TrEMBL record:
Residues 204-399 form the Glycosyltransferase 2-like domain. GO terms for cellular component: plasma membrane. It is a multi-pass membrane protein. The lineage of its organism: Bacteria, Pseudomonadati, Pseudomonadota, Alphaproteobacteria, Rhodobacterales. Keywords: Glycosyltransferase, Membrane, Transferase, Transmembrane, Transmembrane helix. The keyword Ribonucleoprotein does not apply. InterPro entries: Glyco_trans_2-like (IPR001173), Glycosyltr_2/OpgH_subfam (IPR050321), Nucleotide-diphossugar_trans (IPR029044). This is Glycosyltransferase. The keyword Hydrolase does not apply.
Length: 661
């Protein structure tokens, strides 16, 4: 009699992974991402698979105990990995809930009824931004639909030209004699001035200098203050330009900016637990609540998160409205991008060590303490582990140290099933926003300064200056960020050398490590790919102004005595491309643009199907263009991954034939 054909170990592990993949294909058809029960079930499975994986790692993959280099390497990687896993599990618990408040805002918009609408002071904090950055924010703030508002520009740069521009625009200009307390101190100075006014505002809105509000920003945000316990309403941050990683990899049309996952998915999930937090710009706060906590905290350089804790400590709530109501300028340079994130990390560590930290004696709820601890885990574990994942395979290639002693079937069964399930769940709930390699590159780019900031901030929380994120400036040429690139280039070279030595010479990597050799080989090849992309991301490409939400529209162009209908594309504040009729260079005329008017223009370049025009709008028309670009319409950018376009964009970038977008 023939025996039952039991599969071998490798075949069984492939069946395990295939089963997880098959279930994943069905999830989008049966899961309602807005239902807490569905989300909780998905993450309960994730917890079970994570526990199974952790037990396997602890009991079957570590070097034997003893005073050996193998044990030091093996156990240290395990410790880093388990710390990162703990941070992931905390995030999974948070993501098991969701709160969307759009319907609530609909029901309570204009909750004050026939009474006088609340008075809102809009605070625009600035330090060194150029007029080109500031003017669109000021114009947008002036154009908000709310009837009772005043715009205040808080200038810590003490610039006379900005004072004159504010007077011309009819907005209030404030400066102070020093920069004590950085941004929080600047806002507190403004609060002190407002407190002396005949009419104290009911609410204050905070905008960064480069964030333009949509016309409904105040009316939608104020709707949630119908609840007298709400002290602050935070809205998401969207960006009208690509962040450095998107831009340098040429994927701005197919891959969302790095903060989309947080604002579109983590913050609504945090709001489900009542632990959404202020992110500075694009927020509205109740005057009496801020006054009750003594203004904006200055103990941390991330005063926004700390303000949420101070409000909660005093009994006020922070809520989140997941609607695109502002859009701003993402850091355009990679150095600025990394500096900004290192500052966030440092500020969070300062909060953890402050009077409002999770272990301090205060009135914070347990969930608020958990919120801070979760953020500490994220900054303190994710980035060091990302560096470790790059460095530890080198120990095998150069020193014959096997840090993970595991067979390929076991890796597939324990790690593969867990990792694949997490990818499936996160992409199901976020509608396809998690791309493994690109996510790893995003983390790796800032891993060294962020890790340094985490350690320094925890050990020495005080005495650190506020690092302003530079915006604007000349971005018209290729810039190689050598200092950022150097560690990745060195690690890439070491990985290539180590792999080559292991293949060519038996003196290196002579320990076969059983089937684990396949694990190390795959791990190394994956690292080669991540490091190569990280190196390319450090080459900053030139930028030009581009409005991601622009779509072709009809317009009329009058030139040479004739009025013709044309298609208008690639509209900026200074130029526009038209299609439908060819014009000679130097042709003068007038183009009629929707919501802007009749703008004088001249042809500066002839194209195959039209021309590129130089616009000469007057001041009123220029402001109308700002409102069209930034204050009206939907959120800019892409909110999900477009897989086919992403592969095309990456292929073009790696062939070094990408064109500016």
């Amino acid at each position: 009699m023939l025996g039952y054909p039991f599969p071998g170990e490798f075949a069984a592990s492939v069946i395990d992974v295939s089963l997880v993949a098959g279930i994943g294909l069905l999830l989008p058809y049966v899961i309602d991402r807005t239902r807490t029960l569905h989300r909780a079930l998905l993450f309960a499975v994730a917890f079970a698979l994570a526990g199974r994986y952790a037990w396997w790692r602890a009991t079957e993959t570590l070097a034997p105990a003893g005073w050996t280099v193998d044990m030091a390497a093996s156990w240290s990687l395990f410790a880093l990995e388990m710390a990162a896993l703990l941070g992931s599990l905390s995030a999974f618990v948070i993501m098991s809930r969701l709160r969307l408040r759009g319907a609530e805002a609909d029901r309570h918009e204009g909750w004050w009824g026939d009474a006088t609408p609340p008075h809102v002071a809009i605070l625009i904090a600035t330090y060194n931004e150029e007029l080109e950055v500031l003017e669109r924010t000021i114009v947008g703030a002036k154009s908000l639909r709310h009837p009772r508002k005043q715009v205040l520009v808080l200038d810590d740069g003490r610039r006379d030209w900005l004072r004159d521009y504010c007077a011309k625009q009819g907005v209030r200009y404030l400066r102070r004699p020093d920069n004590k307390g950085s941004k929080a101190g600047n806002i507190n100075h403004a609060l002190g001035v407002l407190a002396q006014d005949a009419e104290v505002p009911d609410f204050i809105a905070v905008l960064d200098a480069d964030f333009v509000p949509h016309r409904g920003f105040l009316s939608r945000s104020l709707a949630l203050f119908h609840d007298p316990e709400v002290g602050l309403v935070q809205t998401p941050q969207h960006f009208f330009n690509a962040d450095p990683i998107q831009h340098n990899l040429g994927v701005s049309r197919s891959y969302p900016d790095e903060q989309r996952f947080f604002f579109d998915h983590m913050q609504p999930a945090r709001d489900g637990w009542g632990i959404a937090f202020c992110c500075g710009t694009s927020s509205v706060a109740r005057w009496s609540a801020v006054e009750a906590v003594g203004g904006f905290p200055t103990e941390s350089i991330t005063e926004d998160f700390m303000l949420t804790l101070a409000l909660q400590n005093a009994g006020w709530r922070t809520v989140y409205l997941d609607e695109a109501l502002t859009e701003g300028l993402a850091p355009e340079g990679l150095k600025e991008y990394v500096t900004q994130r290192a500052r966030w990390c440092l500020g969070l560590m300062q909060i953890a060590r402050s009077r409002l930290g999770p272990l301090s004696r205060n009135n914070l709820r347990l969930r608020d303490r958990w919120s801070v601890a979760d953020s500490v885990l994220y900054w303190f574990t994710t980035f060091p582990f990302r560096l470790a994942a790059i460095c530890y395979p080198l120990l095998y290639w150069f020193f014959n140290i096997t840090v993970v002693d595991a067979s390929l079937p076991d890796v597939l069964t324990y790690f593969g099933c867990y990792y694949l399930w997490i990818l499936i769940v996160l992409n199901t709930l976020s509608r396809g926003m998690v791309v493994p390699i690109l996510n790893d590159v995003s983390q790796l780019i800032g891993a060294i300064p962020i890790t340094r900031a985490a350690v320094v901030g925890m050990l020495k929380p005080k005495g650190h200056p506020f690092s302003v994120t530079a915006k604007g400036g000349d971005r018209s040429r290729i810039v190689v960020q050598w200092r950022l690139m150097a560690p990745f280039a060195i690690l890439l070279a070491l990985t290539v050398i180590g792999l080559s030595l292991g293949i060519v010479w038996d003196r290196f990597a002579f320990d076969e490590a059983g089937d684990g050799k396949w694990v190390i080989l795959f791990w190394t090849l994956y690292n080669l790919l991540v490091l190569s992309i990280a190196v390319i991301a450090c080459i900053e490409l030139p930028r030009r102004e581009r409005h991601i939400t622009d779509t072709p529209e009809r317009a009329t162009f009058e030139a040479d005595g004739a009025l013709r209908k044309v298609w208008l594309v690639s509209l900026t504040a200074d130029t526009v491309r038209i299609r439908g009729h060819a014009y000679s260079e130097g042709t003068q005329g007038w183009i009629d643009i929707r919501d802007v008017g009749r703008v004088p223009a001249s042809v500066i370049a002839r194209t195959a199907d039209g021309a590129r025009l130089l616009l000469r709008p007057d001041e009123t028309q220029r402001e109308a263009l700002f409102l069209r670009f930034y204050a009206d319409g939907a959120a800019p950018g892409v909110t999900g991954v477009r897989t086919a376009a992403l592969l095309e964009d990456l292929g073009r970038r790696f062939s070094f034939t990408s064109r500016l977008r």
